[in-house]
Amino acid sequence: MAKKRALEEESTGERREGGEGKRQKKGFSVGPANLPDGTYRRKVQKIKKTLIHKAKVKKSYAKLKARELELHDNNADHPPPPPPPPPPPPPPPPHQAEAGDAKKEKEEPPSTTNLHRPPRQAPSTHNPSPSKTPHPNHHRKPPPFTKESAIAQATHRERALAAAQRDAKSADRERARRIMAKARGPGGARKLGRESVVLLERVKRIVGGGG
């Protein structure tokens, strides 16, 4: 009889455990479910969305904080490498190099051979031919390499902007690393006040980008 009673108790316990395991969790609810469509129902839905958004932010903050603490512990053992040096400036466009060479040639003193040249002949007094006279409506040709110069200048500006953005991101990472390093007390205790500033900024950027 004792064995039979023990077997019955075990079977009833298993049925109870199985029934509890099959229970489904109820959904998140705010206010009564039988509200009619109107101002109160919209207000309840708005409160529910706000609470869900806050819960998501809190969950993301907890995940990011745990990840940052893990990375900080790893960086304490292996410090990050120094940032790479900025790229060298691009070479000047070809037309600028030619202009520099022409300027150097103008600045050079005249050679001694030019001092003994014969005098030039006086210009003739007869009227020039009509084909050689400049036409007032004739437009001058644009200087060469204008398009290449504009492209080179645009490329130079883009590279300078990219380098400035890289330097700014590197400075932000270095500042965050210093703040996280200062958040450790002398006894190894973390100061959550300093860590939360950096982590909250990153959570806001993540939530704002996702929205």
Task: Describe this protein's structure.
The chain has five helices and no strands. It is an all-alpha fold. It has a domain at 62-76 and 148-211. Helix 2 (39-77) packs across helix 5.
Tally of contiguous helical segments:
5
β-strand number: 0
Low-confidence stretches: none
Ends apart, CA distance between termini: 66 Å
Please state the average pLDDT score: 72
For the biggest sheet, the summary is: none
By secondary-structure content and strand pairing, the structural class works out as mainly alpha
As a percent range, the share of helical residues equals: 55-70%
Run of helices and strands:
HHHHH
Measured by DSSP, the beta-strand proportion falls in: under 5%
Q: What is the CA-based Rg, rounded? A: 40 Å
Oligomerization state:
single chain
Shape: elongated
